[in-house]
Amino acid sequence: MSEFEDKVLRIVKKIPPGKTMSYKQVAEKAGSPKAWRAVGSCLKKNNNPAIPCHRVIKSDGSPGGYNKGRKLKIKKLKQEGAQIKEL
DNA sequence: CGTATGACGTGCA
DNA sequence: GTGCACGCCATAC
Length: 87
Hints:
Elements: H1 3-13, E1 21-22, H2 23-30, H3 36-45, E2 56-57, H4 70-80
Parallel strand pairs: 1-2
Helix pairs in contact: 1-2, 2-3
The chain binds a DNA duplex (13 and 13 nucleotides) through residues 2, 4-5, 22-24, 27, 32, 34-45, 53, 56-60, 63-67, 70, 73.
């Protein structure tokens, strides 16, 4: 696993319930403020159950995508109380 | 090693 | 406000 992936997964894993972080924010904390592209690519390949990747959304507040289905992602976010544009 | 793609973001019409 | 195009990093082939 690359260092970047480890950082990203680590940060996403640290996202508290009811909160959401944009890919850019995660990339920034990962050490590469311009690697949000890789963040999504990395998460989609590392859909680890310990990683609440559904809490990672786009900067505009949209849920973006999800390996298990965007709908499920939205559902989980709403269930946790996360504010997204699907409300 | 080089090319193509992606769960994106920003800019412009 | 919406739609299209370009740019970016990392991964896969």
